């Protein structure tokens, strides 16, 4: 620790461990994951938010650090040992897993109601009543050509018809003012179209069988945006999701989940680039901090797990095995001047130096 120390003495190593622990407070920039019963639904990032449903994306970032959250020293130390086992964005994505069966816009109540409107035209008794509320072209007893159909509750379709079905281009406006304008095929959204909600949310892109299918752009009321590929109403393929705080993920999706290769960036400069599985970091990846620190290695369920290398800005390194987010097993500690020292770690703590 003196002026002539090369950085390999026990005192220097102890100091570096304390620095590593203190860095974890910066890494852990969000509260540890809590049960859903204690969370407000407003904080959930919906896996797939219905355009006209009651669920709205609201992911106001929790800016308190773990230092602010845990008051006493013992709790701070316990939190610091867990290297990046909880971090900003982790609990947000975890909540996505609980929403994995939620469909996107067109399978919401709005589109189902659309179906019921046109189904009435197939009912003979209702067809006769609704005929009085139709103004347009006919082919025999069928609406055929261009025309405007209104319903008793104020819903309206203005567009092209084929044998009593919306077919071609047209605009349908629900009684609650949600509207779809675009291409239709046998009374279902099919082709290119735009669906808008009164709260400002909308989807613009390709449709098939009343579902987002192909390439499209979806924006929610809080200005969060997804642009990319859809498959049968779900984000699937390549796409970019930008949250309202401008943090974003760009990469591969599967069934509305971050899955495959992709990059996630936070507004504070942190980023992860690598493999994902079911909304979590899984496989090989690279996690970096704005100050230059970096971890390159294996992940399992959002935690360092397997072989990985952690590098400090000043050149120090840890190369070795990790388990559940902490050093566990053999590893090599590299000093600033490049000297190495092999050791054995258990649950994040150095057990002994090895010869």
Structure characterization notes:
16% of the residues lie in helices and 44% in strands. The chain contains 6 helices and 20 strands. The chain has a 20-stranded antiparallel β-sheet, with helices on one face. Helix 1 (10-27) crosses helix 3. The radius of gyration is 28 Å and the shape is rod-shaped. The two termini are 22 Å apart. Keywords: Repeat.
How does CATH name the architecture of the domain at 105-232? Single Sheet
Average pLDDT, all residues: 76
Task: Look at the structure and name the CATH superfamily of the domain at 105-232.
Answer: Histone H3 K4-specific methyltransferase SET7/9 N-terminal domain
- The tally of strands reads 20
Q: Note the overall shape.
A: rod-shaped
Structural class: alpha+beta
Order of helices and strands: HHHHHHEEEEEEEEEEEEEEEEEEEE
CATH class of the domain at 105-232: Mainly Beta
Q: How big is the Rg? A: 28 Å
Q: Main β-sheet: number of strands, strand sense, barrel status?
A: 20 strands, antiparallel
End-to-end gap: 22 Å
Describe the secondary-structure layout.
Blueprint: H1 10-27, H2 66-69, H3 73-81, H4 90-97, H5 109-119, H6 124-131, E1 134-139, E2 142-150, E3 156-162, E4 165-173, E5 179-185, E6 188-196, E7 202-208, E8 211-219, E9 225-231, E10 234-242, E11 248-254, E12 257-265, E13 271-277, E14 280-288, E15 294-300, E16 303-311, E17 317-323, E18 326-334, E19 340-346, E20 349-353
Antiparallel strand pairs: 1-2, 2-3, 3-4, 4-5, 5-6, 6-7, 7-8, 8-9, 9-10, 10-11, 11-12, 12-13, 13-14, 14-15, 15-16, 16-17, 17-18, 18-19, 19-20
Helix pairs in contact: 1-3
